[in-house]
Amino acid sequence: MIFNERTEIVKKTELAMLTTKGDIQRLIDEKFSEWDSIHESGSDGTSYMPDGYLLNNLRHDIIQLRVRKARLFDSEVVGQLTFDGGEVQAERNIPDLLPMNWSADNSKAQKSAFLKNYFAEKYQVNT
């Protein structure tokens, strides 16, 4: 189910297809990037879903991806050296659960302007 152009829920079948640590970590990083973007600047003006709803879905995806990663690759310890000479880094904390109707400050303004513009064009109202 797609919520807007950027954010969609990871389905169980898609999650099962992720078998390499790199793929899982890449998707976790993408989800965190989307979460940061929506949290700072809100979702785009065409989405009628509140930002809190989208952010909580992204949070859920991050948790599910981390659980999958832990099941497949549970032997790593923070600070441990890897095969390529790197070091295992601590993971970023899971974002807090937000109220479902939470919205970023400028997201409210963007959505309001979008709706005002849409209805002004549709009904030819002068704004």
Question: What are the key terms here?
Answer:
single chain, 127 residues, 4 helices
Give a nutshell description of this structure.
With 127 residues, the protein is mainly α.
Task: Give a topology summary.
Blueprint: H1 12-17, H2 21-41, H3 51-72, H4 105-123
Helix pairs in contact: 2-3
Q: How confident overall, as mean pLDDT? A: 78
- Estimate percent helicity: 40-55%
Strand proportion: under 5%
Major sheet size, sense and barrel closure:
none
Number of helices: 4
Describe this structure in words.
- The protein is an all-alpha fold and 127 residues long.
- The protein contains 4 helices and no strands.
- The chain has helices at 12-17, 21-41, 51-72, 105-123.
- Residues 1-6 have low confidence and may be disordered.
